[in-house]
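Protein modeling request. Please complete all fields; requests missing the sequence field cannot be processed.
Requester role: graduate student
Desired output: 3D structure, token encoding
Chains: 1
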Amino acid sequence: MPATDPARTATKTAVLLREDLLPWQRLNVTAFLAGGVSAAHPELLGLPYADADGTAYLPLLGQPVLVLEGSADVLRAARERAGRRGLAVAVFTAAMFGTGHDAANRAVVAAVPGADLDLVGLALHGPRTAVDKVVKGSRLHP
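Delivered output (142 residues):
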């Protein structure tokens, strides 16, 4: 799309998944991470929906979310690049599959230095070019 197209935004949202996840894990991690981006950037939410019968529905993210995949090394590098660029990221680690609630999730992340996190997914939102540079080396999720 040309840069003058009103549908093209100056920002981008990306979810990056580790390539070896099971299908249910990919879906679960994507849902959690998209929720993190939505919480951090409420301006990304569109308006509520309604059908022709007047039934109301919740708002959705107002722009596409790019879902990518890569190796553990690609995720590790993406986390580091995001930090250097000052972009906040949502993370999901392998240990979080074994917890049952939010406080336990935060505890397993807090127990490990950032460089040693066993990342299975991360998400971020920011300027298009910055997000592209952070996720360099990944590929579109099939």
